[in-house]
Amino acid sequence: MIVDDDALVRSGLRLLLGGDPTLEVVAEAANGREALDRHAADPVDLILMDLRMPVMDGIDATAAFKAGPNPPAVIVLTTFDADDYVVRALAVGADGFLLKDTPPAEIVAAIGRVRSGEPALSPSVTAALIKQVVDGRDATREPAGCDAVDMLTDREREVAVCLARGASNAEIAAELYMSVATVKAHISHIFTKLDASNRVQVAIRMHDAGLA
């Protein structure tokens, strides 16, 4: 589903994605409330979500999607890579973000990464986003981060530290001498133990605990 209040943007994205045989655009929406209603009537697997929209913005919509059962993957769209809206969207569970001037091939590749469980975030952007969240945290967050991290095994903690650096599954596998399948299994356990729905949330918890 493409969610954007600009009809021209929606049309352009539909045209762009329609050329890929692995993708099918099945719905459009002009705001978050409309997107939620359309998803309730006919669930989708992945959403390209604009952030600034009337009625319900992308942050509130993403939070609502992720709070529901079997939530779709959500990639937020933004104009600025340091936009506070993006930080907030990732904090509520978005699986990644794309700039609106991202080349078409990269948009398709990013969607493919998210569909396979990888984040659509570069390491440099991940670090910048985490820094914004960590710099603004309050005094109560660090103890909570320590308590959460204490539930991880030593191996899971090593993987989580790599995640906090923005490393991909393949990079973690190479660094820790394990298979990509094993890395994915550890990440699944980490998400469960830390009550996280994406890698940025894991990274924030690791920073809160002083381990990244």
From TrEMBL:
Keywords: DNA-binding, Phosphoprotein, Transcription, Transcription regulation. Residues 145-210 form the HTH luxR-type domain. PROSITE patterns: HTH_LUXR_1, HTH_LUXR_2, RESPONSE_REGULATORY. InterPro entries: CheY-like_superfamily, NreC/VraR/RcsB-like_REC, Sig_transdc_resp-reg_C-effctor, Sig_transdc_resp-reg_receiver, Tscrpt_reg_LuxR_C, WalR-like. This is Response regulator receiver. It comes from the Bacteria. One of its GO terms (molecular function) is DNA binding. GO terms for biological process: phosphorelay signal transduction system; regulation of DNA-templated transcription. It comes from Gordonia neofelifaecis NRRL B-59395. It holds the Pfam family Response_reg.
